[in-house]
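Re-run with default settings, no changes from the original entry. Doing this only to confirm the output is reproducible before filing.
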Amino acid sequence: MLLALNISGFLGLIYSALRIRDLSREVNRRLQAEKNVDWIACHDTLTELPNRRFLDSVCAQAMTDQRTQETYAVFSIDLDGFKKINDLLGHDHGDAVLKTVAQRLSSLFPREHVFRLGGDEFVVLARRTGNPDLVALGNRIVTVIGKPFTFNGVAVDLGASVGFALFPENGDDLSQVIRHSDCAMYVAKKQGRNLVKPFVASMQDELAKRI
């Protein structure tokens, strides 16, 4: 009986250890699943860039955190000729172009936030130090995006319209500045291809008339 009790106790100990191990694995799997869900909610699954929801959280954080008031240049980017690529070559080529554009922007801004907001619209949130030449930086964006694309032997011609606005000079909060950079981008797109436009207040009146 004593031997049987010892054996049963030993077996019970083994069973408990196995259960603890299984529970630990299950907890880790659930934590990983939650992280994946959070990542998917805040990122574009095609390009793996942060999405509009992530951008909204950054804007909200900038509003609540008054201790570290950063200055930013916000670049709104819309691709020129992307619809033609989708229509003529198909959505597979369009997706490949978007991935490549995302990689090029991330390489150009390795320490800054690059977002894909949907379709062929991107936003770069760049911190400012000193007095950078933002028009020149906008032209670098146009040049990088405009480099030749070749997919499956097919050459793809692409351009970009870029507008930019400054925080806090052009708005009391980042969300407003992003809207202003969008406004400048629409003006650039209306005036031609591969243009860079800084935001000026008169652009709001023009956009209102168009609406």
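The chain has a mean pLDDT of 86. The two ends are 90 Å apart (CA to CA).
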